Amino acid sequence: MAAAAADPGALAPGPAARNERMTDKVLPATEPTHAGSTHLAPRRYCLFALPALLLMAAVIISPWLFTLVMSVMEFTVGGAINFVGLGNFTKLVSDTRFLESVGRTFWFTVLAVVFPIGLGTAAAVVFHCQFPFRGLLRTIFIMPMMATPVAVALVWTMMFHPQLGVLNYLLSLIGLAPFAWVYDPNTVIITLVLVEVWHWTPLVMLIVLGGMAALPTDPYDWATIHGASDWQMFRFITLPLILPDIMVAVVIRTIDALKVFDTIFVITQGGPGTASETLNIFLYLQAFQFYNLGYASAVVMVFS
Amino acid sequence: MSNRITSGGIWRRIGFGLSVFALVSPAILVFLWMISLLLKNELDSTAYPPVFITNPPTFANDIEVFEKNNVLPYFWNSLLVTGGAVLIGLLVGVPAGYGIARSKAYRTAVMILIARMTPALSYLIPLFLLFQIVGLIGSIWALLITHLVITVPIIVWVMIGYFEGIPQELEDAAYVDGATLWQSFRYIALPLARPGMMVGAILAGIFSWNNVVFSVVLGGKNSRTLPSAVYNLLAFEQISWGPLAAAALLVTLPVILMTIAAQREIVAGLSAGGLKD
């Protein structure tokens, strides 16, 4: 039997009659095979997932419980550990730095979802067409998404430099005034959104493109016969059909935009002042710069 | 809609070409500038108006990074952490993907995916303390364990999709022949899922390699991974642009090469599952 099982080719084409050790208790031959196997014991299949589940529980859930405990403590590294009850939470409500970071995170997220979704969908429409060098250009297009955020953020930082940066040079070439980019509290968020759009539009493009690959051709033939314009075809056939994929992209983008840390951390560290201090940066500074671990835990509890 | 562009009129084609150019040029600009910084000498790096390439091109910056800052150990750390996390991720994630796909236990899948959704800092704070208590802060193990949060969900997600595409009938035939659940997984499903494992490993590897925050928080002087070592160059060493760009390129070059070599797998994996990091 072991020999038979070791050779998938021999097993693949249906019931192998040569197996003399087959007994009725395995599976009654009359039962439809697909139904039989799903009834086989779903619970036993779960054993396969057990190690992964335990691992994730150990690394995510148990720390989370630990956070819950810490959030009611005054807990600083090297300092005293005191029980403060809801003290951390009441402190949060009146902490303007915290409240501002929440508002900032909200706006950053809205912008960092809307722009990549719009651009990414447009890019998917373009890359869905056949044109020369499509594969190569698509690879170049998705490269930002794969590139290491720290490396990319470094290059952006240099390009944003107000006096020496290449971006202001390019602006001057087309006759525009230099822009302050990340060096002005008023423009820092929108500049960071720009980096985020550059970084993650390709992911939206890939998700939507995956959806477009499954589009039926019939409606387009029909629409062409009836003289529909390209825009009409996109608006009334393509868009409704790829809407589920766009929604998936919206969900993923929202989760990721809320998580953004690397680029902001490398480019501005929350500055100038606190102008780009999103929730994640606020958390990082509280926990690992000021070592207010209890306070930071309370922030985590509020948002989970 | 496809195929229509090449048959369109001249204006149409120009318009289309321009939109392709507009989409691709930001990506090209940034990477080109990275290469440009790499090939310039110190003077030209900060010249205004910017110089694209020093004539003749020089690798002086890059050699300086290697000589002054011992980057090779960090490269090795990154390799160990990413390699280890991908290997353990496969060991744990592939069976999990199989179990979830076959028993359609999607609630279990969601539980594993929560790991992908939670912001890193929310579990880094307690993990930092826990690792400090057991004395693993500054050790490569702390990083390796934490990186599993990246690799396991990606691999599970890719494998669920992949195992679902393998017909149940193949395995039913094996059960008829008296194979156990484990044998059917080991000798039938697993060999067929090898391409899926490739996709999962590549994606998990890239996103694990790219991660910086785990190492910034949990890494010590000797266990730091390459991205956080480069961040440290920027934050504390005040070294100039040329060497910084060289370091940046050194971090991201393996990933870029991987993307080019495996772009088909990456596109397949990401457009099917729609996940990352």
Q: What structural category characterises the helix and strand content of chain A?
A: mainly alpha
* Uncertain segments of chain B: 1-6
Q: Could you tell me how far the N terminus lies from the C terminus of chain A, measured between alpha carbons in angstroms?
A: 51 Å
Number of domains of chain A: 2
The chain-level mean pLDDT of chain B equals 81
- The gyration radius over C-alpha positions of chain B equals 23 Å
Major β-sheet annotation of chain B: none
Number of strands of chain B: 0
* Distance linking N and C termini of chain B: 33 Å
Walk across the major sheet of chain A and give the strand order.
1-2
The coarse silhouette of chain A is globular
Order of helices and strands of chain A: HHHHEEHHHHHHHHHHH
How many DSSP-defined strands of chain A? Answer: 2
CATH homologous superfamily of the largest domain in chain B? MetI-like
Descriptive overview:
The complex is a heterodimer of chains A (304) and B (277). Chain A has 304 residues and is an all-alpha fold. Chain A is built from 15 helices and 2 strands. Chain A has 2 domains: 23-63, no CATH class; 96-290 and 298-302, MetI-like fold (Orthogonal Bundle), CATH 1.10.3720.10. In chain A, a hairpin with a 5-residue loop joins strand 1 (73-75) and strand 2. Chain A is globular and about 75 Å long. Chain A starts with a helix and ends with a helix. Mean pLDDT of chain A is 79; it is low at 1-39. By secondary structure, chain B is mainly α. Chain B folds into 2 domains: 5-58, no CATH class; 66-273, MetI-like (MetI-like fold, Orthogonal Bundle), CATH 1.10.3720.10. Chain B is built from 14 helices and no strands.
